[in-house]
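User: Small ask, check this?
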Amino acid sequence: MTLPQELLDFLRCSTPDAWVAQALEHPEELLIDHANCEKKAASTALNLMFRYTDKPDLLQKMSRLAREELRHFEQVTALMQRRGVVYRGLSASQYAQRLRQHVRTTEPGRLIDTLIVGAFIEARSCERFAKLAPHLDAELGDFYRSLLKSEARHYQDYLKLAGKYAQGPIDERVAFFAEVEAEAVMADDSEFRFHSGVAAQAC
């Protein structure tokens, strides 16, 4: 499964094989939390639209992104229904919070960091879909492959918007969050989730 090299370079490390093994041991939690992630991604896009009404490019990009994420949510829950997987509440992983706790609280830093964090979440999701797909049954593997193009575009949209609205280069902030994201991926989590970390390996 080939991903754009720029996306692989953007992420500081790849998902550990141990996480893939955990995913295969928790098929129901994988689908349920995937649905949750799509719903949260749509919510993030809508929140940005409400918060930054003076930015036409952002409004257009986030509107499209929210629609796509909700469509993915519908597709995941439909797939769950076919498999007899009941949608239920799951505790959230700490992944997103581990990134968002470093977002600056004043503008424009808050917007720039939020967009960079969004880029990392989308890029990691894309990388994990690609990592999982070869190990899944044909229906689920094909579905995850079908998500790669849109997830890769979402990461690019977030990153381009961050660059557009920054008052200078964003390389330093991207590098900072790359380190934070890599640490989140390798963190020792007690419960499996789509973005949970795995201990005992290093980037």
User: Anything to note?
Assistant: Residues 138-165 form the longest helix (28 residues).
